[in-house]
Amino acid sequence: MKALDALLIAIRLLYIEKSIEKHNSSNSVELVNNIIELLSTEKRPLSGNRQDIINNLKAYVKTFVDTYDKDVYEPNLIKQSLLLILENKDLINELIDDLTRESSLEDKQKRILRLRSILNNFYGEDKLKKLLNRLQFEINNKRNSIGDINKFRLNALADLETVSLGNAEKDVNVVTEIDLSDIKESSEIIHELQNEANSGLLLKTGFQALNAVLDGGVRRGELITITSQQHKYKSGLVRSLFMQTMMHNTPELKDINKKPLMVFISFEDNARLVLKFMFEYLMSCDGKTTTINDISSDVAASYIRTRLEEKGWNVKLLVVNPSGWGYKDIFNKIEEYESNGYEVFGLGLDYLSLVPKIGCVSNGATGADTRDLFRRVGNYGRAKDIYIMTPHQSSTAVKMLLRNDVRDDEVVKEVYGKGYFADSGQLDQEQDVGILGHICKKDDGYYLTLAVDKHRGFVIDFEKAFFNYKFPKSGLPIPGDVDGEDKAVKDLNNTESDSMDIF
Q: In CATH, what number does 200-494 get?
């Protein structure tokens, strides 16, 4: 598009917006300013007379911007001003006819969106060209100064994400849009809610007490965080719940031509440690005390596959160096699986907070980039109907509570609902389900104390919110109890060592 066309479109856009400003049309002053600045810095090969026309027209459009909040745009004055700048009278008459033609409010609003899209494309294309030229120059001429190529790539991807191209009438961040006047559309959503358990959206966990407080289990599309101090079974619980959703649920596909998939990505431990936990957890659930060192590698691998895939699931385990991945790489991996015929149900991320915050918004507030990272990943999961589960560290303030004589078995009650998160105290605003954990020692052994302090969309029953599970004396992970006797302990002050023994 030529500079002349862009400036005339800017006049159309501001004029139409001004004519309906009382109807809350958000103005495009900043966009037009960006166009003027772009044309002022851009070196286009123009003849002297042509350059004078563009310069004068830029100055005139600038008056539109400067007087937007003050003057009423008058078509006759616009015509007289343009006759002093442009040589083409037919072009001017066409513009004035377009500005003065009768049209409905709805039609004007549609034209505003269309004109904004054209200018955004013009502006975005120029930004894209400059960005690509800069990246090419740096990679070809400044490779030694770049250093870490993975960091350079992540920064490049973040920069590319800021370039807006294409028709923006559909916002990719809008997960669902429902016209409530359409009874059929809203009825389908309500029916889906009523039949969550049978629709595959609801996945029960292996813990009866957790299912009770979560109104049945975890749901596809939820962002679930497990928060506690270091070495307090955060990753263990995430891995346990991840496996439980496969062990206790048969996949219900939205697309019967797809294959159901669960994905676990570890940014912290190597594959050996993850597989060791998986094997020993599954053994615990089967009432066995066998460790991975007591059995051949082939048998162990076959056992893990059989137990996790017996209801029809497929499982992918990735171990990733977090310094080389951003949140977009997580999304790209999911898209890759989908393109290969999978429907992803759940995603375990151990830990999400280890992913670089490149491309995330940091508005100056402490932890804003961490919160934005969780928001972006959570929104992606909601849009895709993928539950995403991750451990997260509690803040150092919890250590202070322990130093100030708060008992181990009272920690989760003390921090309940108070936002004791590392990196961002407002992380609870981004999670759909928040689970708090801590480990305490009693006379008869060690217990995992748990509490659900966030459940978006459901009112938490505080009588059910706090519960405890005992670690087996064998040192193996805590098995589920969903298929047998409820093993949750409500009151740790009245435990009986024999009856609380899991094996």
A: 3.40.50.300
For the chain, the domains span 3-161, 200-494
| Token output for 137 | 């120059």
Token readout for 142 is 């400044």
Which two tokens mark 475? 């040192």
| Cα 213 from Cα 461, distance rounded (Å) | 7
Q: pLDDT tens-digit profile of 349-370?
A: 998 999 988 778 776 677 888 9
As given in the structure block, the two tokens for residue 369 are 């980039």
Taking Cα atoms as reference points, which of 282, 314, 312, 311 lies closest to residue 206?
282
Per the DSSP assignment, residues forming a β-bridge with 343 are 260
Contact 280, 288 (CB under 8 A): no
Provide the token pair at 215: 């109104």
* Of the candidate ranges 106-110, 315-319, 448-452, the one whose mean pLDDT is the lowest: 106-110
Q: Checking DSSP bridges between strand 342-350 and strand 202-203, what pairing results, if any?
A: unpaired
> Among positive and negative, which fits the CA dihedral 250, 254, 257, 258?
negative
Token pair in block for residue 262: 């669960």
Mean pLDDT of 226-253: 94
Q: How far apart are CA 449 and CA 320, in angstroms?
A: 30
| pLDDT in the model for residue 364 | 64
In this structure, the chain runs to a length of 503
Q: Tally the C-alpha atoms within 13 A of residue 98's C-alpha that lie toward its C-beta.
A: 16
Q: How far is CA 246 from CA 33, 191, 312, in A?
A: 54, 25, 9
Distance CA 225, CA 421 (A): 11
User: Residue 366: CB partners within 8 Å, gap ≥ 6?
Assistant: 424
Contacts of 96 (CB under 8 A, 6+ apart): 75, 78, 79
SS3 of residue 113 by DSSP: helix
**∠ CA 49-50-54 to the nearest 5 degrees?**
120
- What backbone phi and psi angles, to 5 degrees, belong to 260? -70, 135
CB atoms under 10 Å from CB of 246, counted, come to 23
